[in-house]
């Protein structure tokens, strides 16, 4: 017996309770309810996933739960149906597991904030929508979750909305996501046009039925390509890929736990999840898959380059997230769905850890985010230091931490990939370079924050303190997960076997390729870390000298390739001027037409009012004349 | 024997005569009470015509209508006289030419 609805309901109930009744109880109750509900969701997901695992036949590992019918128009029905299969089970565990840890962390992080209750209401709402997104069988329901998490993202980026900068960052995220969502919506409509249903399981049935009976497929290759590309536009927006990545770095304006939960671990991976969920569509369009892989690889290296020259600790991590999401798209683009989801999971562990660690640093330094004003924190913040070290090594891809295994599998898949657009070797080369840059900028971040001399401003020095237990416990748990999560996933291919009902058993790569990729990725991981230690610890003047020598290049990178400025000029300004023109048109043409009409009628009425004498007798005469004329005419 | 046969035409002529009388009363007189009486006259001229039509066509609906119109006319007179009394109380006049307040 599965309890799928009870995965979604606890946070919903908790958020309603906190929203409606929260003013009558204190922070402790609010926090307990918010965290406890997510923990309950996690336990239910764990139980249901275990029951799923207990089903002997892997192909039948699907459970569904229809709550009610949402829409019913003629024969078209949208039920609120939750479906648990290995993929959504894994996603649920990540969302509720990592989500619970981040909730716990937020209790410490947000304790002194006046918006404590509002924060947890938003956070719980986010969990609800995210679970809806991954558990939905119907694409329209998925879209509800998709938009819902976007809303929560917007609300939480602008959480401290009294500051204009935060509010406009939220707005930017919302608007950029709208562009992607439009593509997604068009994709949904095209899916409906092709399949006459929006239910993923029904779509899959239609396709497998057609294949089994050698019937023509319901959609032509071109249609499949168009649908996949439209859906990918949506994924680009939500998962911050080129060219719609610009909102994610700005999204760091939100509180750090939000960056960890929404903008690193869960929401931004929704695009990857969506493509993995609709893998059977992408299987029809090698071209669209190729586009996904190329965009992913390009984003991976592009964001990594920008990450090299950022000085804000959260900005570095933000670009790192964009880059790692690029890896996931590279994986799903070359058909390695299992490893895309695997990297999604390990990334959720170590990136949540890194964000929470950076939050702990920021908390200790009274809000300081500039890496140049940190340094030497290793002794003052021992727990943060050690856990952050685990995260850094994990993302850099050092054996045997989580990032090594997932990244390694993706690189192997890329190396062996055959796409119509680009050779696997090129994808591999790009991925490997991005891995090198990742190791380098993470090493740089780590050294600048924790090692070397202390550059903290004097008035903040005495305040440096290790965070309370609610913040350090999640760090420790996530550090453990980052350390062993990858190894556990590849141990006897456990993660691949778990997902095999969806994607089949992965083909074993030729040992020569496997060993070569492994050696190469280890080499770049250590090389990047070593180089960053050399640059920022051994010879701290070297980076500055380099930056001066390659002046314009450095500035170009540090200013994020001026993409924001470019968008400003080619998108924002034109739209703004169209708006100005529209306003002028409205004011001078539409308003005038309205005013003139009104004025004309008023004048005419004024003239006609002279016929009104108020004398009943006169009216009677006019009435008589009028009736006589009417009778005469109608005779 | 029918020395002077009264037909539909006579009734209608009487009705038209009464109606014209009523119209002229309404148009010419200034006293609002008399104007109201003119209106009543017009109404009853109409009634007479309807009853005549009903009588000569053999259809009973006209009779029913006339009874209905008489009821409505009673109500209408009550409202009209009510307005008149209200006017007289506030303005001390029942002259139609002086009661020209319903103007812009």
Using the coordinates shown, work out and report the CATH topology of the domain at 30-99 in chain B. Answer: Helix Hairpins
What is the global morphology of chain A? globular
Number of helices of chain B: 3
Q: Helical amount among residues of chain B, as a percent range?
A: over 70%
Distance, first to last CA of chain B: 63 Å
Query: Which spans of chain A of ≥5 residues are poorly predicted at pLDDT below 50?
Result: none
Q: What's the CATH architecture name of the domain at 30-99 in chain B?
A: Orthogonal Bundle
Beta-strand residue percentage of chain A? under 5%
Tally of individual helices of chain A: 26
Calculate the mean pLDDT score of chain A and round it: 89
In CATH's first tier, which class of the domain at 30-99 in chain B applies?
Mainly Alpha
String of helices and strands of chain B: HHH
Identify the strand order in the major beta sheet of chain A. 1-2
* Total beta strands of chain A: 2
Q: Explain this structure to me?
A:
The complex is a heterodimer of chains A (635) and B (104). By secondary structure, chain A is mainly alpha-helical. Chain A contains 26 helices and two strands. In chain A, strands 1-2 form a two-stranded antiparallel sheet. In chain A, strand 1 and strand 2 form a beta hairpin. In chain A, helix 3 runs antiparallel to helix 20, helix 5 runs antiparallel to helix 6 and helix 17 packs across helix 22. Chain A is globular and about 110 Å long. In chain B, 75% of the residues lie in helices and 0% in strands. Chain B is built from three helices and no strands. The longest helix of chain B has 31 residues. The mean pLDDT of chain B is 87. Classes of the chains: A mainly alpha (635), B mainly alpha (104). Chains A and B meet through helix 26 of A and helix 1 of B.
């Amino acid at each position: 017996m599965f309890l799928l609805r009870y995965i979604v309901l606890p946070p919903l109930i908790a958020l309603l309770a906190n929203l409606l009744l929260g003013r009558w109880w204190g922070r402790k109750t609010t926090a307990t309810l918010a965290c406890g509900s997510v923990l309950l969701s996690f336990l239910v997901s764990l139980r249901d996933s275990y029951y799923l695992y207990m089903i002997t036949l892997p192909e039948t590992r699907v459970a569904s739960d229809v709550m009610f019918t949402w829409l019913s128009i003629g024969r078209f029905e949208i039920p609120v149906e939750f479906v648990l299969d290995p993929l959504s089970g894994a996603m649920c565990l990540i969302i509720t597991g990592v989500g619970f840890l981040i909730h716990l962390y937020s209790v410490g992080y947000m304790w002194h904030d006046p918006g404590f209750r509002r924060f947890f209401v938003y956070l719980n709402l986010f969990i609800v929508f995210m679970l809806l997104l991954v558990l939905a069988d119907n694409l329209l329901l998925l879209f509800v979750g998709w938009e819902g998490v976007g809303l929560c993202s917007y609300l939480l980026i602008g959480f401290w909305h009294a500051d204009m900068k935060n509010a406009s960052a939220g707005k930017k995220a919302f608007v950029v996501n709208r562009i992607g969502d439009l593509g997604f919506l068009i994709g949904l409509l095209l899916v409906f046009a092709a399949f006459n249903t929006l239910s993923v399981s029904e779509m899959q049935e239609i396709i497998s039925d057609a294949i089994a009976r050698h019937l023509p497929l319901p959609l032509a290759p071109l249609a499949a390509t168009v649908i996949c590309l439209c859906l990918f536009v949506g994924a680009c927006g939500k998962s911050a890929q080129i060219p719609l990545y610009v909102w994610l770095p700005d999204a760091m304006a939100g509180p750090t736990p939000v960056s960890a939960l929404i903008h690193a671990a869960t929401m931004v991976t929704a695009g990857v999840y969506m493509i993995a969920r609709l893998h059977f569509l992408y299987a029809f369009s090698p071209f669209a898959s190729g586009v996904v892989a190329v965009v992913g690889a390009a984003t991976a290296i592009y964001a990594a380059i920008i990450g090299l020259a950022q000085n804000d600790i959260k900005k570095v991590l933000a670009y790192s997230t964009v880059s790692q999401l690029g890896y996931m798209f590279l994986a799903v683009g070359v058909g390695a769905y299992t490893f895309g989801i695997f990297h999604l999971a390990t990334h959720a562990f170590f990136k949540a850890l890194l964000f929470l660690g950076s939050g702990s640093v920021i908390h200790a330094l009274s809000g300081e985010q500039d890496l140049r004003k940190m340094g030497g924190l290793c002794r003052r913040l021992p727990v943060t230091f050690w856990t952050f070290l685990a995260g850094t090594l994990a993302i850099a891809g050092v054996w045997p931490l989580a990032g090594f295994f997932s990244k390694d599998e993706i690189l192997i898949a890329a190396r062996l990939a055959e796409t119509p657009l680009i050779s696997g070797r090129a994808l591999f080369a790009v991925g490997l370079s991005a891995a090198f840059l990742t190791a380098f900028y993470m090493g740089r971040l780590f050294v600048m924050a924790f090692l070397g001399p202390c550059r903290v401003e004097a008035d903040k020095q005495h305040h440096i303190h290790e965070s309370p237990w609610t913040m350090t416990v999640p760090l420790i748990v996530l550090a453990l997960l980052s350390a062993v999560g990858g190894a556990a996933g590849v141990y006897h291919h456990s993660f691949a076997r778990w997902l095999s009902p969806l994607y089949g058993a992965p083909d074993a790569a030729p040992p020569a390729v496997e060993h070569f990729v492994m050696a190469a990725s280890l080499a770049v991981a250590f090389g990047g870390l070593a180089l960053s230690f050399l640059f920022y610890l051994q010879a701290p003047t070297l980076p500055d000298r380099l930056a001066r020598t390659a002046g314009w290049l450095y500035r170009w990178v540090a200013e994020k390739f001026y993409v924001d400025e470019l968008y400003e000029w080619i998108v924002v300004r034109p739209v703004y001027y169209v708006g100005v023109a529209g306003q002028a048109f409205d004011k001078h043409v539409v308003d005038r037409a309205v005013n003139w009409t009104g004025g004309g009628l008023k004048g005419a009425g004024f003239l006609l009012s002279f016929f009104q004498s108020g004398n009943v007798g006169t009216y009677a005469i006019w009435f008589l004349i009028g009736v006589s004329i009417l009778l005469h005419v109608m005779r | 024997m029918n020395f002077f046969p009264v037909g539909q035409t006579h009734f209608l002529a009487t009705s038209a005569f009464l109606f014209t009388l009523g119209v002229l009363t309404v148009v010419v007189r200034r006293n609002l009470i008399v104007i109201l009486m003119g209106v009543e006259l017009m109404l009853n001229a109409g009634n007479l015509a309807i009853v005549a039509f009903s009588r000569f066509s053999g259809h009973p609906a006209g009779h029913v209508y006339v009874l209905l119109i008489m009821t409505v006319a009673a109500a209408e007179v009550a409202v009209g006289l009510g307005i008149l009394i209200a006017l007289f109380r506030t303005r001390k006049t029942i002259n139609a030419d002086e009661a020209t307040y319903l103007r812009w």
